[in-house]
Amino acid sequence: MNPFVFNTTKSVVFENGAAERIAALAGGLLGKACLLITDPGLRKLGLCDPCIDALEKAGHQVTVFDDVEADPSRETLMRAVEAGRSAGATGVIGFGGGSSQDVAKLVALLLGSDEDLDAAWGVGQAKGPRLPLVLVPTTAGTGSEVTPVSIITVGAEEKRGVSSPVILPDMAILDASLTVGLPASITAATGVDAMVHAIESYASVNANNNPVSKLLAREALRLLGANIETVVADGSNLEARGAMLLGSMLAGQAFANAPVAAVHALAYPIGGTFHIPHGLSNALVLPHVLRFNAPQAGSVYAEVAADAFPDLAEVEGGQARTAAFVDALTDLSKRLGLPPRLRDVDIPRSAIPKMAEDAMVQARLLVNNPREVTQADAQAIYEAAW
Q: I need a surface site. Which of 161, 179, 221, 262 has the fewest CB within 10 A?
């Protein structure tokens, strides 16, 4: 067995209604001046109000920064840092989807250490320390509440990442009731995103791929595969919502330690250039990347196929089961109502060469892929997805 390191969030609370108990759960950690980072949609819906009320009733001062957009920009990040600095923040809460959580991670880092952001980009470059950090996800997809990664859009299109155990939060609060009002389209896209995390982590050729991540990835696929269609059809099913939230977290723990690969690398230009939500970007390229990888990773995909789709246990032969797995994922996206092709989200074919060039910038992800991806390969995958 190869040596490995497994890092994750120090404390995970899984409980319906837990967000309303944040003061009791994390008040002592966060200190008196809390900066809550969220997006305008959640703020307008009032979803974070019980959390804010609980903190204020317990004597905390709460400053809300609610300007986080999808694919958050560096400018947004720095405005959030200034809001926290002006408020004298002693702790940071990320409330929302992956974007709000990603911003919260780096705000906690920059407020806690005054670190140079440009020196923190990449793997293991962020040194810290950071402010206390609590993350409260409202989607079952990114697993950001247990990952040491934050992705920020720099300039017009480029996505850059900070990956360091320093930005793992102190606590993740998993409250399935917060996900009940999520629209079916977002539920579907984020759910597939979580499945991608599990699949790519399991097949990752990163030197730190490990038995713990593999176990978590497989359990994640069991939970996600068994519940994703249920929650898309009936968003009020709290038990299924909880299973999706837990599955997303387990997949997050898996890929936080055995990192993702080409699906994500090829998804980033789709989101960065055309502002397609991250989960949908992954879904659009997923089957095509898996088919490309199958000559090298077919036996690995065959191992997890029946976790997500139990009927595939009847398919004999590794390559046959892998082919059936890819087809099942394609059919699942269709049943969930996700657009199947790049052209269906208004991406012109003429954009493919530039997207392939941009994907190659994601070297930190491509090195984890089971099969080497050249720029010509990336272009061919996009062509197949178009």
A: 161
Question: What integer is the mean pLDDT of 128-140?
Answer: 97
DSSP 360: T
Between strands 122-123 and 33-37, the pairing is unpaired
* Partners of residue 94 on adjacent β-strands: 37, 135
CA atoms within a 13 Å half-sphere pointing along the CA-CB vector of 254: 30
Asked if 301 contacts 199 with a C-beta cutoff of 8 angstroms, the reply is yes
pLDDT tier, 144 (very low <50, low <70, confident <90, very high otherwise): very high
**Token reading at 234:** 């009936």
CATH 3.40.50.1970 fits 11-178, yes or no: yes
- Pairing between strand 33-37 and 61-65? parallel
- pLDDT tens per residue across span 59-83: 999 999 999 998 899 999 999 999 9
Cα 127-36-257 angle, rounded to 5 deg? 40
10 C-beta neighbours (distance < 10 Å), count: 11
* Cα angle value 144/345/329 (rounded, 5°): 60
Report the number of secondary-structure helices (H) and strands (E) in the chain.
Answer: 15, 9
d(CA 264, CA 272): 12
The Cα–Cα gap between 60 and 73 comes to: 29
3-class secondary-structure state, position 62: strand
Per DSSP, the residues of 196-209 read HHHHHHHH---TT-
pLDDT digits (tens, 9 = 90+) for 199-220: 999 999 999 999 999 999 999 9
The average pLDDT across 311-315 equals: 96
Stretch(es) of the chain classified as CATH 1.20.1090.10: 193-385
Query: Which tokens in the block code for residue 303?
Result: 């191992």
CATH for 193-385 (1.20.1090.10, 2.60.120.10, 1.10.287.70, 3.10.150.10):
1.20.1090.10
Check whether 156 has a pLDDT greater than 80. Answer: no
Angle of the 278-308 helix axis to the 262-274 helix axis, nearest 10: 150
